[in-house]
Amino acid sequence: MDDYTILGVCRHDTSEVITQKYKKLALKYHPDRNLNNKLECEEKFKEISKAYHNIINKKSFNVNDYNYSHLFTKINNVKKYFKDINYETLINNVIDNVSNFNDFVNEKNNEKNNTKEKDEDLFINANIELFDIYNGINKSITIERLRKCNVCKGIGKIITKDKLLETCQSCYGTKYTNTKINLEFNCRTKNICFPKFSNHCEDKLPGDIIINTIAKPHTCFNIYNNYDLIYTYTIDHAVQNEYYIEFKHLDNRKYKFKIINPIYNYKYKINNLGLLYNDNSIQRGDLYIIIQNSILHYKTSIEIN
Fold it and tell me: I need a surface site. Which of 113, 173, 235, 277 has the fewest CB within 10 A?
């Protein structure tokens, strides 16, 4: 029988509750109060006294007691964490965060006081197939820029495994290295800006990278008014009354239109078959069909099937 059972208390009980229980039992089994059964009560009195003192001592010092075991478990976990921690990684992470915070503060101060000059922007002309522009295909390019060293975070020094401060072997203390930058963009957008993606340099803010999408020449289609398209359809004979035009559009679908009394070089407008707008909506420009080599000049109309 354990000490708690002898006193009739629980492990969760406070010292005050246990003491009160002990006093009641001590009075009940005290030998002087039980002269008719003195020997048996004397043994019981010794048993409850020993149990009481054991429990009180455990409450004060024993780490296995419920109220303290959780605390010491947490302490041991903390000790284990600091024992297993990679201090080199920890210090470098701190340096990284300090460097990023310093960049943030410098940018905010510059926005407020306009004290730093901005480095030159980089403009890139990307020649894109008209099919990709029409369908909003995602593209990416990789270029090299002089950027803050990723190893030393632009400090020029690193903490070694021996906790020594040494010159960074990536940038050799210059703080900057040639870094490959991957730029992803959607072909539907004509001018894409990547703020502060250009060169890093001392005492200057990084410049921007601007990508201008330029459509490659197409055999049948041309861009008109930024978002409209012109499709030139050539016929080599005279037609009267009506004419059917069938062609494959940039969405890989075939379209067939009937034109009544075709007119040479007249722009026949088809709504919403042009290029996507830059505002991320699904709205498009228009498609204009131009017939060449027709000699008829009558009033015309168009029917769309």
Answer: 113
